[in-house]
Structures are given as C-alpha cells and as structure tokens.
Write a structure and sequence with these properties.
9 helices; Helix Hairpins; 17% strand; four-stranded parallel beta sheet; Rossmann fold; 187 residues; alpha/beta
Length: 187
C-alpha cells in the first residue's frame, strides 16, 4: 500500500505518515521514483491509532462534567477509528503542572494519540509546546474543539492566574477571597 493511501485510510495527514515511516514506526520500502510502499502484514495490526482520552475539570464542583467530556471523546475516537487504550479523568487546575494522571500518560509508551476536547483541558498555556514535544516522540495531540479564545475564556484564564498567585502569597484558604476582591476592583 502506498504511504498516501495509508494516511487517507487512517485519517492522518501525509506528513504525519511520512514522519512515522522516517522514524521507523512503519515498515516498507522506497522505490527509486520516491514512492513509499508499506508492507501489508503490518497494516493488519496498525499501532498508529492507539488513543488516550484525557478529560479534566478545574474543581470538584464541575466533577459531573468529566463523564460528559469523556463521552464526547469516546464518540470522536470511535468515529476516527481509533483504539482507546486508556481513559484519564482528572480534577485540577490547568495552570497546575503537578497533575499525576497526566504525568503518568507521558511516561507510558503504549499510545500514539492524545485526545482532548479543548486545548484548555490539557493546559491553560503551552499546549503548542506539548504538541511539538509529542511530535518529536512520534505521537500526536488531537484537540477536538479548536475554538478561538473569546472574552469569557480570557476572563477565566485571568481569574485562574490571580488565584494561583494569591494562593502562593496568602495560602489556599484566603486566596479565593483575595481573588474575588481583586476581580471586583477591575470590574
């Protein structure tokens, strides 16, 4: 099978398929014309569609939204023909870089695609860097809903940043009250 046919069949971009071939994840040969042919025996058990689903909410008040998020992620993965190898549900701030379940995902190797609903579910900032690092490892990050930032989303980011800094300055108990005071002074 040609590499371009493989990419189309598995719903990935040709450059992603080429990178997988170049990194040795796909076995095949290149003809003198430049055409890349993949060996048929490996296509039956293609590991390039193993997906990890990651759902996150920022507080336990929104915990009921986790299952709804996961359901949408499952629907998306099955529509794309991915094999789901792990489902991760986590409660924690997108600004927090100490999320044990997400850290565990990055330490295991039995997956190829990390699927999140919105980029903010993975991290408030730096998702592009995460995506670049995953590509370097031959993995992909797929964000289902690629919406542009709107005013409400920016306001939530602003509140999250202030809460994070006030928690460091004043302790966890007083941080919420201090954040509310600061927000009221801006509005």
């Amino acid at each position: 099978m040609k590499l371009s046919q493989y990419a189309k069949k598995y719903g990935i971009h040709y450059t992603t398929a080429y990178r997988l071939w170049k990194n040795g994840h796909l076995k095949g040969k290149q003809l003198p014309t430049g055409t890349i042919l993949l060996f048929e025996e490996q296509l039956k058990d293609c590991p390039q569609n193993r997906a990890v689903l990651y759902a996150r909410v920022s507080s336990s008040e929104n915990k009921s939204n986790l299952e709804t998020q996961l359901s949408r992620l499952r629907d998306y993965a099955s529509a794309k023909g991915y094999t789901i190898v792990k489902e991760i549900k986590e409660v924690g701030s997108g600004l927090n870089d100490k999320r044990p379940y997400l850290e565990k995902v990055f330490t295991i190797d039995n997956w190829d695609i990390l699927i999140v609903e919105h980029s903010s579910r993975l991290a408030r900032f730096g998702t592009n860097y995460i995506s670049l690092l995953l590509k370097k490892q031959g993995k992909m990050l797929e964000i289902i809903n690629q919406v542009t930032e709107d005013t409400e989303d920016l306001m939530q980011d602003f509140v999250a940043i202030i809460t994070s800094f006030t928690a460091r300055l004043y302790g966890l108990g007083r941080s919420q009250r201090k954040t509310e005071t600061i927000i009221k002074s801006f509005i």
